[in-house]
Amino acid sequence: MSHKVKDAMLICMDPRYMPNKEGDEGEFMPVLKEFMKHHKIPGSYCLRYAGASLAVNDPDHGSSIEKHLKFLVRNGVERLHIVDHLNNCAAFSDVYGEKTGEEEIKLHIEELLKAKMKLSGLFPTLHFPTYYHDTKKIQFVN
Q: Cα–Cα distance between 76 and 1 in angstroms, integer?
């Protein structure tokens, strides 16, 4: 049974994407909600893995993401938007050490493009637009 949802998203599980204890939005949520609304991505089609693109490229997590993507393809999804966030991603810091500025952006872009290439090879019918989120905006990469 195919659903009408054409877009899904992969983001980091960073708590800034979640409501806090008081129920207030995390600091990353306002921009992300606008992005999801623009691309018509329901919350139920939002995959959350530490590091987002980094998780795709990690053999320990990649197979789990691939299982989710098989399900999404069977249900009519055509695009998986991959969104990495800047501003001290703990998963990236664990792998690369703490980076800031252009060095941080460059690392995220490299991982995003590597993830896109890997997933495009496994799922040739899906499209994988990539982005980085710098708190105030979500910037398209490729």
A: 9
Taken as a whole, the chain contains a residue count of 142
For each of the domains in the chain, give its residue range(s) and CATH number, in order of start. 7-140 (3.40.1050)
The Cα-based distances of 18 to 21, 30, 52, 70 in angstroms read: 10, 11, 15, 26
Tokens read off for 27? 């600091």
Pair 115, 8: CB distance under 8 Å: no
Q: What is the pLDDT of residues 48-61, one digit of tens each?
A: 999 999 999 987 77
User: pTM for this one?
Assistant: 0.91
d(CA 42, CA 37): 8
